[in-house]
């Protein structure tokens, strides 16, 4: 069993079964050949949350799995950055009642995640 026969993202593991390769040991071309494209981590998290909720942005917004490691990141922006959109010290925080209606910040090219499906202009 070789990495080639397993596919680009897999390699033989110590117990003889296939394991995932370390992405940083792969080339950009290999990653692209697998169908991955460069993106901010916040966008990757948002996409994972949309996948978790079968593409339903409102379900991601209302996710109750508060112990999930992705939960603070699920809206596609950085929750801990002071002054960042929606951050604790933000001047741009969306009012709770607006968020409860599912309204999201307007699409903004400075915040690529707002360009994802489900991010209609507020
Ligand atoms: S935060 Fe919620 S929507 Fe995102 S991966 Fe976790 S459980 Fe799924």
Key words describing this protein structure:
elongated; 122 residues; binds iron/sulfur cluster; single chain; disordered C terminus; two-stranded antiparallel ribbon; 2 domains; mainly alpha
Number of discrete domains: 2
User: What is the string of SSEs from the N terminus onward?
Assistant: HEEHHHH
Strand tally is 2
Q: Which percent range fits the helix content?
A: 25-40%
Which structural category do the helix and sheet elements fall into? mainly alpha
Individual helix count: 5
If you compute it from the alpha carbons, what radius of gyration comes out, rounded to the nearest whole angstrom? 18 Å
User: Main β-sheet: number of strands, strand sense, barrel status?
Assistant: 2 strands, antiparallel
Provide the spatial order of strands within the biggest beta sheet: 1-2
Low-confidence stretches: 105-115, 118-122
Distance between the termini: 53 Å
Q: What is the residue-mean pLDDT, rounded to a whole number? A: 79
In terms of DSSP E residues, the strand content is: under 5%
Shape: elongated
Q: What ligand species are in this complex? A: iron/sulfur cluster
Protein described:
Helix content is 26%, strand content 5%. By secondary structure, the protein is mainly alpha-helical. It has 2 domains: 31 residues, no CATH class; 62 residues, no CATH class. Strand 1 and strand 2 form a beta hairpin. The longest helix is centred in the middle third of the chain and has 12 residues. It is elongated, with a radius of gyration of 18 Å. The C terminus is likely disordered. Bound molecules: iron/sulfur cluster (SF4). The site of iron/sulfur cluster has 11 residues, from helix 3. Iron/sulfur cluster binds next to helix 3.
